[in-house]
Hints:
The chain is α/β, with parallel strands linked by helices. It has a domain at 214-349. Helix content is 25%, strand content 23%. It has helices at 10-17, 22-29, 36-42, 54-60, 100-103, 134-143, 191-198, 240-248, 275-285, 305-315, 345-348, and strands at 47-49, 69-74, 91-97, 117-122, 150-155, 182-185, 206-212, 230-238, 255-262, 291-298, 320-325, 332-340. The protein has a 12-stranded mixed β-sheet. It is globular, with a radius of gyration of 25 Å.
Amino acid sequence: MVTTFQELCIDIIVEILSYFNVHELFYSFCLLIPCLPKLLVNARVRLHVRSNNSYFIRWILPHIQLTQVYSLNVPARPYNPSIFEFTGLRSLVLYDVDNPLLLLESSNNWPPYYLEHLSLHIRNQDTPSTSSNIGTRVLERAFQLRRLKRFELHESKSSLKMVAMYDQLIFPSAFQSSTIKCLIITVYCNWTTLQSMLNYLPDLRHFRFRSSLNYFETRSPQFCFSLIRTLNLRLDGLQTDNFVSLFRSAPVLRQLRLQCSFTLFKQCQMNLLKSDAWIQLMDTYTPHLKVIEIDLQFRLNNVNGKTIEMINDDLKILNLKINSDSNNGNHCWKMAGIFRRFYSKENLN
Length: 349
């Protein structure tokens, strides 16, 4: 009968170790397994680094091989040791990045050939009054990583200004498409950039995006979310006509989180405040939609408290509610809530 940890099969021990990051490994097993560093190297255990703090640099770094680091998450600068020494990465998350283009320049073993997940929090060094297209250039280089499946682009809290993306993406003539399946962009991005990037994302399944349509040209933007299953949008200045086309363009959508404001909420489109209209919209265009979370802002003229009470009573079936919203001194209305659809076995088949 096995009675101690040391008596376990080596394969089981290695399997157990693979579930911990390096800090947890050395905190928890360095006394239990005296030959831990040698075991990690000989068994080629995939290592997960979640911090490059002083403990890591002094007590862990001398006992591991950087080529065995499978995922790296560095929450603060300075990056010590150099990021470029981790050539076996599958996942890389960096904060406070001041030169992301340098990070994506090709060299002998960089970017890592098998990199699948890349998340960058950019710190923009430009002055607040100066525009920057660094986000667009970063996006272009990330799209060309041959095995990348997930890409995230954020703004560091220490950034001086928003890292805006307002240009059309430009690629070499030989570039056809990206392998990215999950794209998260929380920096500001205009509609031209969005349409440009969607042209190169045939396998996109999960998408998070924000934009403003306040100063967009008068023609309606064309949504194209034909294969997307999870959609998280923040849109400012949306028109109600475009709102309907959003559903029409996402036939296989499973989850939708929508935060937006409408430029004009026409009286003739008051049917969007009725539960039947929402149910018909989902049944017609997004039959697979399971969860919808909305936060909509709009103006309504000539409405009173009794009208709002009647609308809310009708919307209870969708777990939605309209409330008055006076943020920033502008009086408007907000519809918010989370609706989950449940399917019978017949629906699922």
